[in-house]
Design a protein that fits this description.
439 residues, mainly alpha, two-stranded antiparallel ribbon, 24 helices
Amino acid sequence: MTNIETNRLRREIISEKAELRKIALAEVKNLSPNEALPILINCLESKNNDVLADISKTLLSYKDEALPYLVRALSSDRWHVRQGASYALGKLGANSLNKLMAMVPQNEEDVDYWMVQTLSHMGSEAVQYLVKVFKHPNQKIRIAAIRAAQNIKDPRMVTALLPMLDEPAWPVRKAAYDSLEEIYECNEQAVADALDSSSDEARFWIIKLLAIKPTPDMVPKFAHIVETSPIESKVEAIKALAMIETPEAHRLLVSYLAHKSWVIRKTAADSIWVQGLGASDELISAAKDQNVDARYWSVKLLGQSQEPKVFEEIIKCLQDTQSSVRSASCQALGNLGDKRALAPLMEMLNDESEEVRTAAVIALGQIGDRDSELANMPSIPTHLSKANTITCSHCGKSVEKDFTFCPFCLEQLKPSTCRTCGKQLESGWKGCPFCGTKI
């Protein structure tokens, strides 16, 4: 065959016209394997998937005769030829696997990389070969092998990937997790068993896997992790508990609202919200807990629940000894939007804590925004008579005459006095210069 005829065949084989390809491939089959196979291999550089599929199908008809040509193509200086050869080899199936592995050149990194891609499409028969590449000295090839493993849903592959979660290199660990995320369901027991014997680093990733579809029997294990593991694993274990909607899991999450670590408390609060069990009895009880942190976080969550039944409990928390809880109570009432909270919130505008006063003003604004009728009402609740009000010189709205600050603009209405000695104080003072009381 002349060069002109060969070039014509190549052009027609990679043509986007299916009928033209079909005729050209039929013509190639009439050639001897030594003539036909080099032509087909050169055509693997096509970027058209339909073309590659037709060429691969033709190559398959040559069976083992095509193997040497395809293996050599893995070392081609053209990237698309290497990719196409890998694609075609993957279509040969497990029956040709042993012969294929015997032909692969040793210690050629580019060949190793493309063989990894090939093996990932050969099913369970390729597990033992692909796992060997997990220890390849070139990290790029190791990661390629680990990521390719997600295409083989075989229990042995899950077992082989789990130790990779303990590798020193983060990219290797991440690649192992990504692959396990796709196939762990074919050997969930191996993942669960690994939780007990894994290192702290591997445990972090295993918890994330188990959290995808956690089961109630995992609750004690997650609880143990929260008590004994590093903070990263604690956080993941709490998030996993949020996916288990059982009374036991919920009680644990509520108990973590009193944890000594702020990170644990915040994660538990977020997880309770994700769990979506609303104003549970456990959460309402926590609002009365001796631990101030438990009271603070439970009140915030109760306010977010939007359940009317918690109104009375939150009102009681306005009298808490801790300003943080009183502030959280104001915020919770604002979230509930119940007009019954207007009077209690107005009283909180005289609280000794600036944080509480500010929270009360914001809450009043929230309730006002939710009540369309409030826009047409006086600036203060109707239960306050005109004899007990004054006009703010800063914003012009009517406020209770006993207020020190305007609830609408937060400007000072009148000079404040020391609550201890009764002396007049000026704006901006941090304490009383007469008796030393902090403001």
